[in-house]
Amino acid sequence: MLASIDLGTNSARLLIGQVNRHRVITVRRHRIVTKMGTGLKETGHIERAALARTAAALEEFRRLIEEHQASTVAIVATSAARRAANVAELVREVERIFGVKLRILDGREEAILSFKGALSVLPAGWRERMPVVIDIGGGSTEICFQAEDGLRALSLELGAVRLTENPISAAALRQKLVPLQGMLAGCQAFVLVGVGGTVTSLAAMEQRMLVYDEEKINGYRLSRSTVDKWLAILASLTLAERQKLPGLEPARADIIVAGTQILQGIMDSLGAAEVLACEGDLLHGLLLEYQRLQG
Q1: Domain 2-107: which topology?
Q2: Among 277, 113, 139, residue whose Cα is nearest residue 195
Q3: Cut 0.90: pTM above it
Q4: CA atoms of 103 and 219, how far apart (whole Å)
Q5: How does DSSP classify residue 237?
Q6: Would strands 71-77 and 141-147 be described as parallel, antiparallel, or unpaired?
Q7: DSSP 3-state percent helix, strand, coil across the chain (nearest 5)
Q8: Is 16 helix (H, G, I), strand (E, B) or coil?
Q9: CATH 3.30.420.150 spans which residues of the chain?
Q10: Which pLDDT score is estimated for 128?
Q11: Res 41 pLDDT > 90
């Protein structure tokens, strides 16, 4: 049994699972909102309260890992850690609780691991249709796909938390997404695959889920008109109203509008008519990476 942990801009996440023939079988997932990126743009530092919330999440993860008798193979951090001047404090907390060194991923590493994680759970038919995997995170957005000359990966400094705290115009958003068009120039046919909380939440809301069901999320198709519909609905509601929506985790209600704006912008930039929700992501990619390195 293996375990991987991701310390992200908005939440800390744990995956406990097994790898079988390049496929990840999920045993347990757990997510705790830590808001590590709150105020980072203004101060350049992870706030003390956010560090405390992250440490508490790590303690809870350690308990769950021990309960499942799993081996912790990777603890990584992404956008917020890449930008924080006091990231050494986060490194010390990880070493104190787990006795291992925190790995801070660069944007390309994050994009590739998310891509490989997504492919590990996608149905075979979709894996054969040139999946372009997007991961809309709290602090950054990653894109990756397999081209003829190898993996192409891109990380944009654009995330749901950052866009919530610092809104920009639709024109400015389009400008930030221009690199996507060049990245996929010449690609005639692909399927857009979305990992991360924005896309999976939209899939859950569209199905009016009262109890989250990964099997019904994985492979769920969201049309462009459905994304437009939900953006209009979400933007019209107050935070309190969004927190009551079936399928939307209340702790995500504050950033779901921004996340959906980014998704809509990506679909516009790529001319994508739909996006396929996927439960595989960075955490799955880390388990696959460990298995490969072990031979």
Answers
A1: Nucleotidyltransferase; domain 5 (3.30.420)
A2: 277
A3: yes
A4: 30
A5: S
A6: unpaired
A7: 45, 25, 30
A8: strand
A9: 122-279
A10: 67
A11: no
